[in-house]
Design a protein that fits this description.
This protein is an alpha/beta fold. The protein contains 12 helices and 10 strands. The chain has helices at residues 13-24, 36-47, 69-73, 93-114, 154-171, 201-208, 223-235, 253-264, 278-285, 289-294, 307-313, 320-333, and strands at residues 4-7, 28-33, 56-60, 78-81, 118-122, 178-184, 186-188, 217-222, 243-246, 250-252. Helix 1 crosses helix 2, helix 4 (93-114) packs parallel to helix 5 and helix 8 packs across helix 12. 48% of the residues are buried.
Length: 337
């Protein structure tokens, strides 16, 4: 039986695939959930990909409370800290930043007290981006978003604040545990079940049909490749103390819709075939808070380099069109469209 790895936020989309991939590689996994019932949902979802046997266990813990974290860390060698509040449906800054930042510090404190070797934290590529969306230069891991920029949307601010808090904690920590952070782009790919789906809801909306797409694009990373990046960052000695961008190819939403139509045939026939005029999207954003938050990215091509992850970890994401089609096919197979 392999080493025990703790995965936080076990019900999440990315965390579920991290659990599955760890099990495939022979690890024993303990995942944090908010209730025992949620643990059984995770087990069922992961079982669609790999037989957990007796190597998947659960601990009750929440980012907003100290309760449960000491027990969750007992006997753990490594931690994948994936849990974070999602920035969907117009969530406000306070409801995202506080649990993301304070929850990260709870995890790190508990990990140091338990003698964990390394924590790998899921951050986001938009924490390594110029604060101004007008700057389209290629960004690497040396770039930091300005967390004090008043124009930042809540989710971007929460991810930046949490990662900064983690590195500040490590700067004041004098012990053997190390930290690495993984900074993904837009995460798509197959789903394990009908639970938390995160960003894949965008693919569902395209498949259901829209009058057109806003000129919004994403650097697309497959969720399976992202899980692989976490495990590589967990095991590579040279990953200690490092940030790693884990983005992929850039695609406009219209190109994503085209990939769904081409790759899924009749099942993708409702995907839109045109862009909405920018002026129409701006007008709709006056009444739709979710649209308002993405307005700074309208027409902008974000560019990050994954050269460091490729060089240090030997990591690479699969082609974006393949990721989008796999995601759409999976949503259809789970009757989620």
């Amino acid at each position: 039986m392999g080493e025990t790895v703790l995965v936080t936020g076990g019900t999440g989309y990315v965390a579920g695939w991290c659990v599955a991939e760890l099990l495939k590689r022979g690890y024993t996994v303990r995942a944090t959930v908010r209730s025992a019932a949620k643990g059984e949902h995770v087990r069922a979802a992961v079982s669609s990909e790999v037989d957990p046997e007796d190597r998947l266990r659960f601990a009750i813990a929440d980012l907003t409370s100290d309760n449960g974290w000491a027990d969750a860390m007992k006997g753990v060698g490594h931690v994948l800290h994936v849990a974070s509040p999602m920035g969907m449906d117009g969530a406000d800054t306070q409801s995202l930043v506080v649990p993301a930042r304070d929850g990260t510090l709870r995890v790190l404190r508990a990990a140091t007290e338990a003698g964990v070797k390394r924590v790998v934290m899921t951050s986001a590529a938009n924490t390594a981006s110029p604060s101004s969306y007008r700057d389209e230069s290629v960004s690497d891991e040396t770039v930091w978003t300005d967390v004090n920029d008043p124009t930042l949307q809540p989710y971007r601010r929460s991810k930046t604040a949490a990662e900064k808090a983690a590195w500040d904690f490590m700067a004041g920590y004098d012990g053997p545990m190390t930290l690495a952070t993984v900074l993904p782009g837009a995460v798509f790919g197959p789903v394990l079940g009908t639970g938390t789906m995160g960003s894949v809801r965008i693919i569902g909306r395209l498949l259901k049909g829209m009058p057109g797409t806003p000129r919004i694009g994403f650097e697309i990373v497959d969720v399976r490749d992202l899980a692989d990046a976490h495990i590589r960052a967990m095991t590579a000695p040279e990953a200690a103390g490092q940030r790693f961008l884990a983005t992929g190819e850039f695609m406009w939403m219209l190109d994503m819709a085209r990939a769904l139509r081409d790759g899924l045939g009749a099942d993708g026939a409702k995907a839109p075939t045109r862009n909405l005029p920018d002026i129409a999207v701006r007008g709709m954003s006056l009444f739709d808070r979710t649209l308002k938050e993405i307005m700074p990215a309208l027409g902008r091509r974000a560019v990050h380099t994954t050269a460091k992850a490729e060089r240090v970890l030997g990591w690479k994401s699969r082609p974006a069109a393949e990721v989008v089609v796999d995601c759409g096919r999976s949503l259809l197979s789970h009757n989620l469209v």
